[in-house]
Amino acid sequence: MQAEQEQIMVGRGTSSGRRAKQGLLLGACLALMVTQGCGSVSNETTGSIQRPAQQGRAVAQMNTTELQSAVRTYGAAYDRDPKNKPTGLSYAAALQMAGRNDQSLAVMQQMAIAHPEDRDVLAAYGKALAAAGDLPKALETIRRAQTPDYPDWRLYSAEGAILDQMGQQVPARTLYRKALDMQPNEPTILSNLGMSYLLGNDLKSAESYLRSAASQPGSDSRVRQNLALVVGLQGRFDEAEKIASSELPPAEAEANVAFLKAMLAQQNTWAMLKDKDKAEN
Questions:
Q1: What gap in Å lies between CA 4 and CA 165, rounded to an integer?
Q2: InterPro entries from the entry (predicted)?
Q3: pLDDT band of 61, cuts 50, 70, 90
Q4: In whole angstroms, what is the distance from residue 221 CA to residue 103 CA?
Q5: Angle formed at CA 229 by CA 211 and CA 139, multiple of 5 degrees
Q6: How many Cα atoms are found within 13 Å in the side-chain-facing hemisphere of 230?
């Protein structure tokens, strides 16, 4: 998602089958993003604050080589001036997209100390906490960044994604719809909704929202990779492979298709977990 991506988990139950299924689904979504050289929850999921840009190109849209260059460039600038807000946010975003979540969180912790009341900093700090797995603190931080008299749709979407990871899907989807009321047809919100339904095992609803997200101006390849996963999980493997390999450089397309095939090879595992859930309910 270009307004990124805390990922999500299924349901509120505590059964071993549900926990195993949650782990598989979360791993699928996160690994897809890492394969693309993009970084959770999920992220991603995936969450909801626009990433900084380098030379007019958003970090979320960079390929692996561009992202590595961005990390070096922003890192050098951060070393020179670690309290500079735009530099710190850009560096943390690039690190997170490169999968270096612990380092991204460390940068944002310093930024939060330097700018304790800044809404943008608090929002990015919350996202970094979520990417590093500290969901309760991430939720607290995102809520502190939000202002009821002048709410931000990105924060609603980010809060929803964190709640989804905590198994609170009903309030999460309420927040996504609030965000859509403020920003209709925003692909990042639609993508979060789609991933929420994916992790709730409602693949048809997930596909519907992800197709809508992918059709909107400004959607990026990560949305289409998640769509490919949903399509493949419904058994339409050729269509999923076509979606997964479109609009990417050949090397990244090949890596994404290889990952998709590996995930879809686990169909028997998905089916067994689903049957176990039914037996336990």
A1: 14
A2: TMTC_O-mannosyltransferase, TPR-like_helical_dom_sf, TPR_rpt, UCP035836
A3: low
A4: 25
A5: 80
A6: 27
